[in-house]
Here is the input.
Amino acid sequence: MTCREFAEFLSDYVEGRLAPAVLVEFERHLAECPNCVSYLQNYQETIALGRAAFTELDAVVPREVPDDLVRAILQAIGRPPFSR
Amino acid sequence: MQSRDTHPGVETPDEGELVARLKHGDPHACEVLVQLYGGRILSVARRILRDDEDARDVVQETFVSAFRGIERFSQASTLWTWLHRIAVNAALTKLRGAGRRYEQPIEPLLPAFQSDGHHVSSFVHWRTADRAIEREETRRLVRACIDRLPEPYRTVLLLRDIEELDIAETAQVLGVNPATVKTRLHRARQALRTLLDHSLRGTP
Here is the structure.
């Protein structure tokens, strides 16, 4: 397996979708190629960083929906708000 | 972190009972639903659209569609999953209607190979991601890099890695086949890796 082929299989590898025969070839390349080890680590960290970037944003964004938006929604469906 | 299915200040009703009340047109149930899920729907719409005004429009469209279509809700999924899919569809429709902005082409961000199949570039493990992830500065950088992805790639990355739709659902909402979703997601991750590499390589 070349680095080019290795890169093609990365996505299936991290999602556990590689066929057993391909997985053997993939892991053999991984054992022989430090550059692809680094590339795989970066690829996995990229996924984790992407998820964290927005998960953390969610944590600081108030879960409450702004009052004026609630009113607009309830008026749009013809159900004026009860509690305000 | 608080459970994603609860909300401070809003008593979480039994979902089956809430659905029954919604189907009977109980106006208070409508308000409960908006209070329970409106904030999270707003976050989803903001992530996809990156425009607060457009995001608010999508929240309104989502709940209007939900109330009008509540009879069709079969409880095969949770209310949240059902609302989330309506919101994703509404946001994507709005995104497609928006004018195209400048986007970097994806090809220069993909790895390059020599004729013998070896990488042209050398890579180093960032080794800092676990600590860097905790910093808001890093999270802002990652969001800015995601924003620089060409739109079809940014959208697939958001739907799969952030909104956690599966491949079939992503293909359905984007109107493309599952193989296209897989290819775009892989390229999006590779391109994001390249964009992040400029900043994270050598981060202390």
Summary: The two ends of chain B are 28 Å apart (CA to CA). Chain B has a mean pLDDT of 86.
